[in-house]
Structure formats: C-alpha cells, structure tokens
C-alpha cells in the first residue's frame, strides 16, 4: 500500500532530488517548507545551490498541474504542496510555540489523524534529518525516519581498504616462495571478494606468529608484496601496518586517487604531506603541490578578518602549516612562510578558490574532506587534470556541515563508489600515533 511521506526542509536542502526518491508513494511538502527554501535560495553556498535546485524542480512540475492538487511523478507517486492541513491546535497542546518545525509537525500529525478517521491503513511518515524534530514527532505519535537514500553504506559495512584473513600456514609459505598469490585460489578457500588495491593481512590459523602483508593488484586477480620498503619518507616512518599501507598508496604513481580516513591523531595529513613532498621536491614527478581544505561551510565568504586573502586564509589553514613546520623542522615563527615562498612549488588554498580550475601535473591534497557534500567532492575531483594525483583526507566522525553525517558526506561516497576501480585506493587508519593522550581523547571523548 502507498505511503504518505511529509518532507522536512532539511531533506530538500540536503538533496534537491529527494522529491523523486520515494518511488510510487505520495510526497507532501508543507507550505512552510517552501518559505524556508525561499529564504535560502540567495545563499552563495551549497545550501543555496540546493534551494535553487528544488525551486527549479517544483517549477517544472508546476507545468504538469496544480501543485496544491497534486501532480503525478515519473516514479509513479504524486507530489502535493499542502495548503489545508495547517491546524496547529493539537501540536500546540504539546509544544506551545508556533515555530516552523512545529508547523511541519502539525502537517504530518493532521495527515495521520485524517487517515485514521478514514479508517485507512496508509502510513504517514515524517522524513527529517533533524534529530529533535524526529524526537518531537515520536512524542506526537507520528512515524518518522531519517533521509537515508543518499547513504553510501551502513556504518558497520564501510570499506576500510584492508582485511585480515586467517589461513593455513602453507598459504603464507606459498606467498613467500612465489612472491604472489592467486586471488581466485584465496577466494575459493575463503569465500571473500577482493577489491583492486585492497590490502590483505594473512595470519596463521594455527596460532603462530607467521604472517604476511599483501596488496591486491589493480586488476584484482593477484595478491602481491608491497612495492615499497618501510623506509622513512621525508623523515616520517610508518608506525603501524595501516600507515604503511597508506604510504604504499600515496607513493604509487599508478593510483591517481587516494582516500584516507581515520580519527584525529592517526597521521592522515602528515603522511599525505610527507609523501607529496617526496614526489614533488625529491622525485619531481609533479610540478606543484596544492594543499586545500574547506572553509566550513564551503563556499561562504572567508569572513571579515583583516588583511589580504592569504592573511584571511591563515587561521583556516593553520593545521596544514603546523604539519609543514614539523616536516621542515622549523625553529622560529615565520620560518615556514619563508621556506614556502622560496620553494614556490607548494600552494596552500581554500577550496573556495579551486572551483572552475583545471589542475594538471600536480599532487593535490584535500584535507577535512568529510565536510564536503557529494556535489562538492564531484566538483573537486573533476578538476583533476592529466598527470595529477589527488588525496582526500578526513575523519567521517567529525562533521561540521549541518546537513551531512558520517555516511552521507562526500568523502564516504568517494570511498564507496571508487572501491572497485583500479585507479583508486583507500585505507582507514585506526591507531592514534600523535600521543597517548590524543589516542585516549579520540577513544573516550
């Protein structure tokens, strides 16, 4: 049986195509949602872009028929802008104040009561990304859901970039003797599907200390030894297996897209910077290093800080400068600026200034990529020109964007959608190496 979905404003501002995501069911947009979207359409950021996208979609549907009467969607459902379910009496008994959120709740509640009066079995579901709106809906007895259709994967199913497999010790011996293993043979034995450039840790099922670290090749048909030794890169040596995997991806010129996720203090940005400096300064494989991070929310003006663009950017870019100061072992304040000015091959930018550019022959690092939406990350990755390598770094559990979460952000989407591609590689760093205090803070707080 068809359901009735009442959409909150934040759903449409998060995904302007959400109108068409409910298949053959009926979609209701409260009138107050249109007012809120109208107030956002002039914003110069992602929210403003999405508000304008919703407006265009509704205008196109308006040519089919009157929105307040309901128009047929290609999905088989209908879309209706509500005008006749504004009674606030029942919601006011619970929450009193007439806010936009409460007006949306009132619409959902009134539809629910109307279906009950008709003795209908149709479900009325309020869809919102606002946790408190969902809580209040539950108090009112209205069924509610988060908007999940844009999620890349369930939290416990996220691709980590490596797997640990227990095997008979003879399998490990075969690898060391022949320097490779057949993916097909291991799949038949383990029933596991491997992705290109995925790392595999083999452990002895008998309990001995015998083990091996391998990497699936780009064609996903062989497991091979790591290409690099565990030598330091720009003074940075891998302190655990996952960091070694990260350096393997970062220093491989045949993998132009690398994603690295992990908690604070796991070394994501430092490893990426060390590898990039090795490639740009030592090997001169790339002509320039471009380091950028979003000014959250991305697309906003940098603000009213005094000075020129570089002076305004400095507070936002300071975490990157901190890592560069560590790598260059600077002693005095301002030394890193002199070094970067003298080198000329390192550019630190805000993502605001990357849009519209084509970036060939460069090593690109995007820090704090978890604060990018799907559209933004597509815009950035599509800027990458011939001969460039791009590294997306971030912690999906530290989201500053109001309409993103650990599953729906742009970084997570890149990880999940590129895991089957031979030109990309991913690794999740798990062990904090900044300090014991930092690791405890990441785990306990």
UniProtKB/TrEMBL annotation:
Family classification: In the N-terminal section; belongs to the PINc/VapC protein family.
Sequence ranges assigned to domain PIN in this UniProt record: 3-135
InterPro entries according to UniProt: P-loop_NTPase, PhoH, PhoH2-like, PIN-like_dom_sf, PIN_dom
Pfam family, one: PIN_4
CDD domains given in the database record: PIN_VapC_PhoHL-ATPase
Name listed for the protein in its UniProt record: PhoH-like ATPase
Key words, A-Z: ATP-binding, Nucleotide-binding
Organism: Paenibacillus hunanensis
Matches recorded under SMART domains: PINc
């Amino acid at each position: 049986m068809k359901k009735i979905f009442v959409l909150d404003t934040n759903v449409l501002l998060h995904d302007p195509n959400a109108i068409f995501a409910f298949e053959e069911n009926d979609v209701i947009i409260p009138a107050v949602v249109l007012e809120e979207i109208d107030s956002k359409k002039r914003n110069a950021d992602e929210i403003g872009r999405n508000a304008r996208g919703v407006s265009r979609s509704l205008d196109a549907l308006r040519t089919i028929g009157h929105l307040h009467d309901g128009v047929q969607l290609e999905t088989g459902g209908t879309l209706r802008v509500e005008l006749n379910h504004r009674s606030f009496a029942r919601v006011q008994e619970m929450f009193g104040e007439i806010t936009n959120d409460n007006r949306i709740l009132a619409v959902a509640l009134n539809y629910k009561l109307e279906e009950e009066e008709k003795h209908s079995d149709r479900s009325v579901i309020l869809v919102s990304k606002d946790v408190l709106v969902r809580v209040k809906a539950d108090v009112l007895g209205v069924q509610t859901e988060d908007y999940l259709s844009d999620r890349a994967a369930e939290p416990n199913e996220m691709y980590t970039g490596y797997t640990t497999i227990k095997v008979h010790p003879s399998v490990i011996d075969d690898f060391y003797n022949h320097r490779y293993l057949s993916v097909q043979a291991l799949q038949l034995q383990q029933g596991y599907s491997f992705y290109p450039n995925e790392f595999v840790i083999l452990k002895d099922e008998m309990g001995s200390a015998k083990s091996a670290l391998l990497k699936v090749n780009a064609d996903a048909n062989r497991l091979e030894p790591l290409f690099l030794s565990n030598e330091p890169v720009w003074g940075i040596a891998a302190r655990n297996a996952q960091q070694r995997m990260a350096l393997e991806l970062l220093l491989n010129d045949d993998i132009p897209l690398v994603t690295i996720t992990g908690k604070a203090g796991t070394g994501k940005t430092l490893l990426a910077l060390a590898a990039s400096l090795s490639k740009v300064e030592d090997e001169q494989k790339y002509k320039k290093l471009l380091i950028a991070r979003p000014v959250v929310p991305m697309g906003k003006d940098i603000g009213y800080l005094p000075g020129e663009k570089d002076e305004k950017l400095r507070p936002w870019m300071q975490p990157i400068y901190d890592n560069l100061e560590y790598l260059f072992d600077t002693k005095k304040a301002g030394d890193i600026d002199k070094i970067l000015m003298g080198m000329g091959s390192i550019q630190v930018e805000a993502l605001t200034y990357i849009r519209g550019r084509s970036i060939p022959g460069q090593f690109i690092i995007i820090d704090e990529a978890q604060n990018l939406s799907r559209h933004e990350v597509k815009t950035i990755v599509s800027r990458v020109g011939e001969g460039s390598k791009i590294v997306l770094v971030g912690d999906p559990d530290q989201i500053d964007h109001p309409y993103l979460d650990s599953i729906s952000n742009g970084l997570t989407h890149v990880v999940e959608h590129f895991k089957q591609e031979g030109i990309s590689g991913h690794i999740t760093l798990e062990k904090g190496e900044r300090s014991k205090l930092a690791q405890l803070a990441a785990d306990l707080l």
